[in-house]
Amino acid sequence: MNRFIDKTLLLLSSIGTAAFLFMTLIVNKPNRISQGVEVSSFGFLGAVGTVVLVLWLSLMALSLYERKYKNNIVFLITSLLVLSLFWGLQSRTALFTSGLSSARISLSTGFYVQIFCIYLLFSTYSKRIKDYKFIKWICAIGIFALMTYFMISGAFDDLSLIKEYNIKKVQFYNNLRIHAILTLGSVLTGAIIAIPLGFLAYSKKKLEDKIMIPLSIIETIPSLSLFGIFLVPLSGLGKLPFFDALGVSGIGWAPAFIALTLYTLLPIGRNTLTGFYSVDNNVIEAAKGMGMNKNQILKNIEFPLAFPVIFTGIRIAFIQTIGGAVLAGLVGGGGMGTFVFLGLGEASPDLILLGVLPIVFFTVLLDYLLKAFEKTMRGIIYD
Predict the structure, then answer these.
(1) What local confidence, expressed as pLDDT, does residue 189 receive?
(2) Residue 77: its pLDDT value, please?
(3) Which of 68, 162, 166, 291 has most Cβ atoms within 10 angstroms of its Cβ?
(4) Are residues 182 and 147 in the same domain?
């Protein structure tokens, strides 16, 4: 073995180990409103905690050496770390709640820090695995299968987060649907508006500043200020029969939808402008030499070559809007922000997490899928 310091692995494994040893893993609550008792990782996990600690220390040790299959080993150990952590969580929860219907376990800082470090380890070292890529699929399927079994079997039912979910299951899926509709609708509407504006700024150079500067100004306006600006005009529109039938008013989905749409204009419009500027002039001149007119060049040359950059703007707008749609809950627009602000009002961290965690999950998933699609699309266009 050659001496080598993997700074990324050393940092993440050190933080994970410190979180395990010194931070609170869970809070044991006799009921929802009680402060509860903080419990360390060792105090809660018992013997399983020893396994988790050994795995963290193994990652630290690996950071000091370079081996042929190191990336594969890191990925396998990280997968075992996930399995051990959740196995200990589900096996020990019932011992602390003692069968009391009101008792619950609330996950604390130490747990979330470890999960965050694990996520960064997965995202970093999965990209470094060049050979034996089947290892990634085996680990992913194993983790997914075990987590699915735990959820179906009710192994996590005593967790405060799951209790909140079970109580508000209907509202959860309804608000998740609203959040998805707001996000998708805002980005699609923004794309319909911003792509022509970006192309207009490209084709009419005198209009570039007149288009892009207002879009930049809109991006700097705080969301709450936009809601206040729309309150009076949308309240007036809501008095008209047509808009009243659509549910338009000073509060609700309408101001949230308009604000989110406005925030998508700059990333999509700017990337559209950049995409068209990135098209090589020599390609355009060659197309003209072949007898193509402006419309043919736009349709067959400029737009296909610019589209990967335009799509990057759409991807950025999607990621931005998923998080921004939380504020819809503040004006009665629904979405996962409803749980966030309700949790803030009731001083319930688990209710806040019920709104936040799905947003984080779908943001990461959507970003991964859109990046994969973007990479495939670039390969098709430029190869």
Answers:
(1) 95
(2) 92
(3) 162
(4) no
